[in-house]
C-alpha cells in the first residue's frame, strides 16, 4: 500500500493526527502528511482509483467523525470519496498548489461542524411552507454561522437544510430545534449530525496521478 488516500485537510500547525481504525481500502491506520501549515489526513491504499463501495463510503465518513473528535476536537475540510495519490511527493505538490484555497476553507470551518434538519409533514397535512421556513429561520439562523438549502426529494419534505455551527453553539441549536418541535406538533423534525462540513467547502484538489 504505497499510495495515499485523502480524507480531508486540517491545520498543519497543530499536533499531528494518528490513530488506528478501519480505514478505506482495508487500511488500519490514519495519519497526517503536512506541508507548510496544512495537513492531509490520509491512510495507505493499494490503488489511486478506489471503488466507492457502501462499506468504504461509510469508512470515509467514520474517519472524518473520528478526526472531528480527536484530541478534544479538530476542524477538517472534508474531501469527497476517492481522492488517492501515488506518492507523498505527488500529494505535497497538490497541497502546495491548492494551499491558498485550503487556508481560506480552513478559516471558514475552524471550530465548526455541520448539522442537518429535515422538516416532514404528515401525509394528509396541509402546511404553509413559507410560514414554516420563516419560523425555522427565526429560531436557527441567528445561531448558525451559515446555512444552505438541500433538495426537497419528497413531496412530504417541507424543509431540508444544512447548518454550519460553532462547537460552543451546539447546545443553543439543540434547544432551538426542541422549541420548534414544541411549536409544530403536526410536523416531524429530523435532526442529524454532527458531520464534517461538506456543504460549506468547495475545494478541488486536482488529479490523482
TrEMBL record:
Q: Tell me which UniProt keywords the record has, alphabetically.
A: Gas vesicle
Q: From which residue to which does any coiled coil extend?
A: none
A GO CC term assigned to this protein in UniProt:
gas vesicle
GO BP term, pick one: gas vesicle organization
Annotated compartments = Gas vesicle
Q: Do the record's keywords include DNA-binding? A: no
Q: Which residues cross the membrane?
A: none
Belongs to which family? Answer: Belongs to the gas vesicle GvpF/GvpL family.
Output the PANTHER family linked to this UniProt entry. Answer: PROTEIN GVPL 2 (PTHR36852)
Q: What is this protein called?
A: Gas vesicle synthesis GvpLGvpF
Q: Which organism is it from?
A: Halopiger xanaduensis (strain DSM 18323 / JCM 14033 / SH-6)
The beginning of the lineage is: Archaea, Methanobacteriati, Methanobacteriota, Stenosarchaea group, Halobacteria
Amino acid at each position: 500500500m504505497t499510495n495515499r488516500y485523502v480524507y480531508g485537510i486540517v491545520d498543519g500547525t497543530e499536533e499531528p493526527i494518528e490513530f488506528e481504525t478501519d480505514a478505506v481500502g482495508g487500511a488500519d491506520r490514519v495519519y497526517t502528511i503536512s506541508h507548510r501549515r496544512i495537513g492531509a489526513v490520509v491512510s495507505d491504499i493499494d490503488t489511486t482509483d478506489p471503488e466507492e463501495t457502501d462499506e468504504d463510503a461509510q469508512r470515509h465518513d467514520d474517519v472524518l467523525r473520528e478526526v472531528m473528535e480527536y484530541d478534544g476536537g479538530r476542524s477538517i475540510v472534508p474531501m469527497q470519496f476517492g481522492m488517492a495519490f501515488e506518492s507523498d511527493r505527488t500529494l505535497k505538490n497538490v497541497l502546495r498548489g491548492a494551499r491558498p484555497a485550503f487556508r481560506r476553507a480552513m478559516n471558514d470551518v475552524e471550530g465548526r461542524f455541520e448539522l442537518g434538519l429535515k422538516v416532514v409533514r404528515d401525509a394528509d397535512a396541509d402546511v404553509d411552507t413559507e410560514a414554516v421556513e420563516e419560523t425555522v429561520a427565526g429560531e436557527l439562523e441567528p445561531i448558525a454561522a451559515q446555512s444552505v438549502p438541500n433538495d426537497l426529494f419528497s413531496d412530504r419534505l417541507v424543509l431540508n437544510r444544512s447548518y454550519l455551527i460553532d462547537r460552543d453553539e451546539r447546545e443553543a441549536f439543540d434547544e432551538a430545534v426542541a422549541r420548534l418541535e414544541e411549536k409544530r406538533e403536526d410536523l416531524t423534525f429530523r435532526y442529524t449530525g454532527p458531520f464534517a462540513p461538506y456543504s460549506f467547502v468547495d475545494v478541488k484538489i486536482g488529479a490523482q496521478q
